[in-house]
Amino acid sequence: MESAKNAGRKARGRPRGWNDSTAQNTIKSLDRAMEIFEHLSEDSGQTLTALATNLGQAPATVYRVLVTLESRGLVEFDPVEQLWHIGPRAFVIGARFLRRTSLVERARPILRRLMETTGETANLGIVQESSVLFVSQVETHASIRAFFPPGTLSPLHASGIGKALLAEMSSDRFERIVRTGGLPRFTQKTLTDPEQLVADLSATRERGHAIDDEEKNLGMRCIAAPVFDVHDEAAAGISVSGPASRMGPDRIPALATEVMEAAAALTAAIGGVPPTRPPS
């Protein structure tokens, strides 16, 4: 019954035989246009003659494609230099892809996998002034768990993600944040002395992950690692958090490995570049 029902449905995204990539399912003129468009994008500007020669196509054919793309704003022509360039519409379309592949959207499956692997709550946070702004979370199924719903703010110096991000900041920005927000104490383990915090951040940068050892809330630990953007700057942090009774010293190395791998996966997913570290 179900199969008969499905058979009568119209395909919404792909027609029957969509995986057939033979000539009958391709549009040769469109394929040719995309080849020209992609080739043009690889250079800062090309003449019609150079494009036609490099692609082995007739100049008249290439010209018709370029004029068509120009009408859509995808390419543009410089009449002085007689060069064709990628147009502003190509950037608009690319920006739409970047919106679709936003940090939070790309992070969700990685956070979910991190939670399932570690059994602890996985978090994603970014810097907002002198605080961490939690923007996404996947909660553990355990009865005792950490909870930082999206929109929660936490001081940078007293959170795993915060310290992971502070460790990647320039000294000027770090000093400005400390000067503006201060280093308030939350527990007896909070690092309120600037020199102690700097030493902790140096160790964080060296090992690749930060540890919040009950520095914001007694009985709770957090392990975090930075996520880097296309400019090799720390754009966000990923962490796992949970009760200290479950996240004891013996588990920290394994949890840290999982967190750093998740951060590296998200860095790659957003096209980020980890910074190059000098040999220690």
TrEMBL record:
GO terms for biological process: negative regulation of DNA-templated transcription. GO terms for molecular function: DNA binding; DNA-binding transcription factor activity. InterPro entries: GAF-like_dom_sf, HTH_MetabolicPath_Reg, TransRegBhcR, Tscrpt_reg_IclR_C, Tscrpt_reg_IclR_N, WH-like_DNA-bd_sf, WH_DNA-bd_sf. Residues 89-272 form the IclR-ED domain. Keywords: DNA-binding, Transcription, Transcription regulation. Residues 27-88 form the HTH iclR-type domain. PROSITE patterns: HTH_ICLR (PS51077), ICLR_ED (PS51078). Residues 1-24 are annotated as: Disordered. The keyword Transcription regulation applies. It holds the Pfam family HTH_IclR. SMART domains: HTH_ICLR (SM00346). Gene3D superfamilies: 3.30.450.40, Winged helix-like DNA-binding domain superfamily/Winged helix DNA-binding domain (1.10.10.10). NCBIfam families: TransRegBhcR. This is Helix-turn-helix domain-containing protein. It comes from Halovulum marinum. The lineage of its organism: Bacteria, Pseudomonadati, Pseudomonadota, Alphaproteobacteria, Rhodobacterales.
